[in-house]
């Protein structure tokens, strides 16, 4: 659906259908849920950047003519659906029953990295969906000890490639998570591979990184004690250095 247009209502319907897939909603139930979301949401849309945010918590809702408006399909979207506690000061503090209401958010992301970071920070009790070019994608998450991310996001497709030259032979590996990429890069560095490059497949952009580690550790009481502990750090591109190659 890349470069195609789509209605806001269809985006909401697709996101709900994926997020609540385990509920096995009937078509009538799905339509009713779409109406609930549209009637209880606020909408922020910026045409210049094609950014979209639909958030629960209002009775104003999104008008039908706006919901059925065609917009360029945002490349990356995340949708979360859960329950949020209700603060009701009219209830007695002692012995009162905690109340919850439905809460949701459909949000576009400027890059795959931003999308992945959002997914990695989702709580376990929240149902969510991810759309890329308007199409739902499969993924799973699991806890990780890697300091660079809150949780490992394992995509249902090969989201990254790692290429290098090892012992004079070009090699390319396709991986489904950033944690897998970090492990592979560190493995290649230890093997003295050259020209190591990480590529985000959906963005078709290289992801720069640096390797940090201790070259020499004299605390072990051994001569020439080289440390094998290394860490990979992803490098964020600074806006101050963008378009360096452009002419004034």
Defining traits:
about 250 residues, alpha+beta, 2 domains, 6-stranded antiparallel beta sheet, 4-stranded antiparallel beta sheet, 16 strands
Domain module tally: 2
- How many helices? The count is 5
Radius of gyration: 23 Å
- Show unreliable segments: 238-248
Please write the string of helix (H) and strand (E) elements.
EHHEEHEEEHEEEEEEHEEEE
- Which bin fits the share of residues in helices? 10-25%
Principal-axes geometry comes out as: elongated
The assembly state of the depicted protein chains is single chain
Widest sheet, order of strands? 2-3-6-5-7-8
Structural class: alpha+beta
How would a crystallographer describe the biggest sheet?
6 strands, antiparallel
Number of strands: 16
Strand content: 35-45%
Distance between the termini: 37 Å
Average pLDDT works out at 85
Summarize the structure.
This protein is an alpha+beta fold and 248 residues long. It has five helices and 16 strands.
Structural write-up:
With 248 residues, the protein is α+β, with helices and mostly antiparallel strands. It has 2 domains: 5-137, no CATH class; 160-240, no CATH class. The chain has 5 helices and 16 strands. A 6-stranded antiparallel β-sheet has the order 2-3-6-5-7-8. Strands 12-11-13-14 form a 4-stranded antiparallel β-sheet, covered by helices on one side. A two-stranded antiparallel ribbon has the order 1-4. The two termini are 37 Å apart.
